[in-house]
């Protein structure tokens, strides 16, 4: 955990950052990836097997890497835009939450509210508990009063409806970043798996335009360095450079192919897709 949330700082200052998605629910993998030089890592509790205890263990591992000099900050993608899930992730120590399926300004406002304690007139609905990991188990007397300032909301635009409402979503106070989910977006357009289709690209451009209009950062998942460079040239500052699973499978298969060019693993995999 950080006294000042570095992810939020970078998003507000439009500083380009690179992160990695964590889907294996492994504290060892989280710590390893954090040591690799990424600016942030997102623990995926939507599509990965992570439960609340897994989140806490991985956040501890990321903090352990930071103690040894790694700069990566941890974030959590929750299973749904649900205050009970957000509360548990934040109690575990997450300051940055990635919200799936944000399709309207109302969805975005609910996401922001779920991260905030009900202090002053900020509209927060987060349940208050100081004796949790995020509050040093009750030993950090500053935590409850300072947590709202460091809360960082990243909302996923990943549907036709979300793209249509991007201007309204971008205007919601407290939304720090619009993250474009091209996989689900392509599916919602009837183009499942065609994330580079011209219609999907046009939708991405619309999100970029809406974000620029309202001075909001944009994030996206890149499956290659070349793709990441292309997005960066378009002004995307929050880029996920693949995932723990992606790097593990790519490294293993590339090594096997290099050692044995006749290795037919890729052909076997393609056959059963």
Automatic annotation (TrEMBL):
One Pfam family cited in the UniProt record for this chain: HpcH_HpaI
Residue ranges occupied by any HpcH/HpaI aldolase/citrate lyase domain in the UniProt entry: 18-246
Domain of life: Bacteria
Keywords: Lyase, Metal-binding
Molecular-function annotations in GO: 2-dehydro-3-deoxyglucarate aldolase activity; metal ion binding
EC number(s) reported in the record: 4.1.2.20
Gene Ontology cellular component terms for the protein in this record: cytoplasm
InterPro entries: Aldolase/citrate-lyase_domain (IPR005000), HpcH-HpaI_aldolase (IPR050251), Pyrv/PenolPyrv_kinase-like_dom (IPR015813), Pyrv_kinase-like_dom_sf (IPR040442)
Protein family according to the UniProt entry: Belongs to the HpcH/HpaI aldolase family.
Protein name: 5-keto-4-deoxy-D-glucarate aldolase
Gene name for this UniProt entry: garL
